[in-house]
Amino acid sequence: MEPRTGTDRLLYERSLVEPYVGSIGWRSIFNITWCVLGWTSIVVLRAAGLIPLWAAIPLAVVCLQACYMPMHESVHKTLSAGRPGLRWVDRSVGALAGWLLCESFSAHRITHLKHHTQTNGETDPDLLNSKGSPRDLVFRVIVGLILYPLGPVMAAVPALRRLLPRGLASRLAQMAQLRGPEAGTAAKPVVLSHLAVLIVGSALGYAETVWLLWYLPAWIGRFWLSLVFGWLPHHPHSETGRYRDTRIFTFIGSTFLIRGHDHHLLHHLFPVVPHYRLRALWVDMSHHLAEQGARIEGRAATTLRTTRTSP
Fold first, then answer.
1. Is 278 a member of any domain?
2. What pLDDT sits at residue 310?
3. 181 belongs to a structural domain
């Protein structure tokens, strides 16, 4: 069968996607609820001395990194299902989840939508964070962990920027340019609020809570998120076509670990489909995507070959 093209292709894809959109994102609302309650419970249990620090930190990482998916869904308005009267739900959940992850929701929305429209291109704001090797990601997160709270200080005292290595200063300037002035402006009050919590919390005797149960776990979680949402789905970040700029890449347990984004290509094609419905959509659309020359790798490719050759 010849691959569908033009209007026929678009109408066919729309017919397959339609059953997966339009419903309120109750699952995402549940997700942000358990993330926040889980993290809060860890803080309370640790304060009461009921769990050791070595257990509290990784548990905090699990809860905080999971905040990203509700924030990401809020960017694409799947919690409100696009209903104008419920946009406040997207904004509220996105802002809360982003704040816990040391991220401005407004800034992330700007840069993430740029990423969708310019994926793997020279102006893709995600490239500087996710392109390279996992070792590169570790280094970038460590640098981010150190420099993030110092951002307002450097902005107030520009001379301090001269202390940064030239290569790092150049990279930060390039990142700011790719993100754009709107994202920078949106991020400033959020960064200041984070700095205030770290300083005030430490001064009031809650240093362990703000540094070891929130700030450090948030950045460890950000490394994981950079790896599975930025690096893995787009690697090696070299193609820009509609069906090639990211991929379907599955392995044992991948849907659970990456929360549906082992089918990341489908998210780029149809961002209004919630992440927890991508796997089901893949079942309906796999052969069509293969006909379009999509990047299909890992177990998904093996399964697809098997179904194609089976009688």
1. no
2. 54
3. yes
pLDDT at site 228: 96
CA distances for 60 relative to 36, 79, 198, 227, angstroms: 10, 24, 17, 18
pLDDT digits (tens, 9 = 90+) for 103-123: 999 999 999 999 999 999 999
CA contacts within 13 A on the Cβ side of 239? 15
Q: What is the pLDDT of residue 264?
A: 98
- The pLDDT value recorded for residue 309 is 57
Contact assessment for residue 248 and residue 262, using Cβ atoms and an 8 Å cutoff: yes
In a domain, 221, yes or no: yes
How many whole angstroms separate alpha carbon 110 and alpha carbon 97? Answer: 16
Backbone angles phi and psi of 249, in degrees to 5: -140, 105
The pLDDT, as a whole number, for residue 156 is 84
Number of domains in the chain: 1
Show the domain range for 40: 25-241
Whether 13 is in a domain gets the answer no
Q: Roughly how many angstroms between the first and final C-alpha of the chain, as a whole number?
A: 17
CB 188 within 8 A of CB 196: no
- Low-confidence spans in the chain with pLDDT less than 70: 1, 308-311
